[in-house]
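Regression report. Comparing outputs from two consecutive submissions.

Submission 1:
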Amino acid sequence: MIGIFDSGSGGLSVLREIIKLLPQERYVYYSDNANCPYGEKSVEFIQDRARKITDLLLSKGARIIVVACNTATAAAIAMLREEYPVKFIGMEPAVKPAALSSRTGIIGVLATAGTLKASKYLNTRGMFEEGTKIAEHVG
């Protein structure tokens, strides 16, 4: 079984794509709507939620967990990988494909404040800043 979680329902688009690739698999999806959005929450809060959700998904039989939330990936995936014996798949900032396919050299990034401050995003952005204008917007 594959466990998937997001701070809200946006991860359902990730679930749909996974189902296309692995239709025979079983899934459990957790939407943390009560705490959505994660963007303005502290790293500690997000990590605590990620642990609790991971524990729940594991109790339901998840063998692998997809963190379908950019903010949770940025704040918690390294910690989850250290603390739990299952594989975690996280969201990657889409700066690379956007920069490589841009015809104008200008790309836009719409993300939560937490994602835009996270080292995972900042490192990816840094690899593509030269020659690409990156317009960021918190949303």
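Submission 2:
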Amino acid sequence: MYLRGDIMLCKFKVQGYKGFEKEIELDLEKHNDYQFNREMIKNGVINKCIIYGNNASGKTNLGFALFDLTFHLIDKSKNMDSKINTNYLNMKSKLGYAEFYYEFKFDNDRIIYKYRKKDLYNLIYEEVIYNGKTIIKYDFFNPSKKIIDIEDAKTLNFKYNEDLSIVKYICNNTIFTKNHALPRLMDFVNGMLWFRSVDSFGFIGLANKNNVLDEIIIENKKTQEFKEFLKSNKIDYNLVELKTPTGKFLGVKIGDKITTLESISSSGTKALWLYYCWEIYFSKVKFLFIDEFDSTYHFDLAANIVKRLNSFRSFQSILTSHNTYLMSNKLTRPDCSFILTPDSLNNLSSCTDKELREAHNIEKLYREGLFTEDE
């Protein structure tokens, strides 16, 4: 059981969770053989996508659902717990629990991780399937019938606290053969990052050690690069570094006077600032989700960020947006643009029988009602 290539999320399903009464599926292997923007697909999996949806369609909850596994598999800082745990279970569902399904791909290998929860913290069932074979199965109500079929874990002494994830316990207490599947899966989860552009430090998963935007830029010696980044987005500030008894700050020199960047930044500039601070840590990211990434951006600025994110090939990224202007074949592809409703999640190319080409104006076709939101 060895892994070679990059591990990627290829399918996700959830039901009984928040606004998702019935099962909803994100299939990142369902794509077309378009000959343009081919870099959006990596190893047969969609690597960059944008999810569109109206208010209350579930975009934020989908992000929370995707990142649910981080709350019991890893110990990284998170500050969204109370918000996510409120109304955790769907109020119409008769299941009595939320059910999650993750399928990952690496070369020709597959690993499936599925589990059930009563709330954000309490697991009731876990299962891991590797290439069609169940290697972990644990029912928290019937632990005597557990399945642990892992060669490296045969000598593991199970002094197990039943409040913990069995997968986490095995990974934390087993010396694995090099490149074993489970440590690679845990490495992926450790590299997951969710943040929202309108919430300065609302995040899930990967975290930096500082939450002061000025200090992140200064301590990473990125002031000049940040200045160029802002300038590329038509914000031309003469940035300087300020040191005071209370900390380090970014200043803007205007004539012979200096003020703080914070004091003159618009909401759009602050969102860019936050984005850039997270970008500093992108070398550690495996999977990125930015919720309502362009809520304070001008159309052109939003397009610039999409282009910039598309240049990062080393991780998968998902953006959510209301902005159908971004449905452009200059930025993405029809099979990498998803429409979310409370009951379905499908990419544009699967919502029409029409053959879509690079020259088509996808946004215009969407506004004209070409795409049906249900397959």
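Expected: both submissions complete independently.
Actual: both completed, but the second showed a warning that disappeared on reload.
Relevant detail on submission 2: The longest strand covers residues 98-106.
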